[in-house]
Amino acid sequence: MEIAALLREDVPYMDLTSSVLDFDPADSEIQFRPKEPLTVCCSEEASAVFDLLGAETTIHAASGSHVDPESPVLSARGTPEQLHKGWKAAQNLLEHFSAIATRTTSMVEHAVGARKNIEVCGTRKHLPGTKQLSLKALCAGGGFPHRLGLSDSILIFSNHYDLLGGLKTLCGMLPQIRKRCPEKKVTVEVESVGDALMVAEAGTDIIQLDKLPPSSVHEVSTTLKSKNLGTIIAAAGGINADNAADYAEAGADVLVSSWMYSGRPSDYRVTIRKT
Question: Which CATH architecture has domain 114-261?
């Protein structure tokens, strides 16, 4: 994230309001405190905003910290004009990405509470242009990226195997696909229990179950165990903090979601006072 670009966007030339108020240039302090319990994210980037303006910053809570309402997260000392210039850019960073981290924390807590060894993964459906910080927030909340991009993993969707002639054709190709990339796991997404069992028996490493209810996930999990197939089960589509425990209890090994990326920003109280 280019901090200078954030500042240029909000302060392209000057802070006109501060310039006409003729502030006393003596040092003042700005503080950021959440109004609600949350998982902090981007206190480092928010600090860099004020660093770039020449203010002196203190990070009270690093990304990934769980804090109570009114706990100090970030403060900076400088002239009133410096602090007003950095105020909104820093607040936007803290509020938008702490919200993603907090939603991720909630989902992880619900999932792990039902099944200890389960992974919560965020998809690539973050707001365009925010990938770096969205993934930072995801990890700050205890999640992991599902895929960093198309270059790092093999995930075969119905759009892929429809072009090949169908799922049965793909199943016949799976041994060769695995040989071509022996260091990568192969994931196939399916939309029914029958298709899930077909690709598991054909040798895929991971089955991604799209929009199937927990009862279907449980059926797949139970059947795979009875056949001694060690296929990993990823559940995707409509999964959030409210149903994460249900999918975990049903036998999913991985929960794949974009839910954490959408929602209201966290709410931070911002105060500026003379020191």
Answer: Alpha-Beta Barrel (3.20)
